[in-house]
Prior knowledge:
- The protein is an all-alpha fold.
- The protein has helices at residues 12-24, 56-72, 75-125, 132-153, 167-179, 191-233, 243-266, 272-276, 293-319, 323-331.
- α3 packs antiparallel against α4, α3 (75-125) packs across α6 (191-233) and α5 packs across α6 (191-233).
- Mean pLDDT is 78; it is low at 1-32.
- It is found in: Membrane.
- The chain crosses the membrane at residues 76-94, 164-185, 197-223, 244-267, 297-317.
Amino acid sequence: MxxxxxxxxxxxxxxxxxxxxxxxxxxxxxxxxxxxxLRFLPPTSCDVKLGPSEPSCALRISCCCRVLSQWLLSQxxxxxxxxxxxxxxxxxxxxxxxxxxLEQSQKLSKIQKELSVELTEQLQQIEDRQExxxxxxxxxxxxxxxxxxxxxxxxxxxxxxxxIWTYPGCVxxxxxxLTTLGFGAPVPRTPLGRSATVLFAAVGIPLxxxxxxxxxxxxxxxxxxxxxxxxxASQAPRVGKPTWLxxxxxxxxxxxxxxxxVIFGVLRxxxxxxxxxxxxxxxxxxxxxxVQGQTRVFYALxxxxxxxxxxxxxxxxxxxxxxxxxxxxxxxGLLTNT
Length: 338
């Protein structure tokens, strides 16, 4: 074994045995080594060494760059980066889409008021109230319909008559982009808003995936360590994984969904069917504009926790794939080791 701490040590004999076993039995796909992941907390010391001819200022710069990179690329540092990026993205969406939505709402209200006044004046000037009224009202309705369709095409009323692009709504939109779970999300209409969306997603989605995958590996590792301690603490000998670890992926997902039904359905006094389909309330077509701001923020946190839980479940399933599943995959031609 090569000496080192828990993040850097590698069991060479273990790797050799795993490779030899893979040559003998095609059903063995991986060794039992814990996959590498980002540190949860960065190291507090700098081990950069320079030659005798290099100045001391170069050592300070190298140490600062190393410590900064270690902090930014640790799980804690990356979490802070993603949170700040999400808040900045929400602020950008709020400043680009919010004024347009407010201006459009005010403009349409003004046009509706002007049409009402115009219709009233025309009806008062008509002498034959039996035949001409119908023609005037029909023309006014046609004009109102045309203006209304133009406003809808520009995004008015997308959220059910309320305001979508408030800051809490923008936070929800930013989190839905990062988690890629934003089905039915509102669409930015301004060129600056769409450009901000592309830039935000291009930077934020890879960082968020990197963070979630590492948190998933860490969570799965802690659960496996807990199961191992439970096995050692038990006096009765056990073979294989404990039952609670086998059931954890399925029970946790079901529990989390029921938790969402209770929080975003039952507690909001939604009907039973709408409670079961509570994610639709946070789409543009489902009326997200009529949802309170704090509820949108809580749902954004719910989405983030859902993605994290999914990453833990996937890591557990990858680490605990049984030989039976591998054999089935080999017989069906789904797996390969080349």
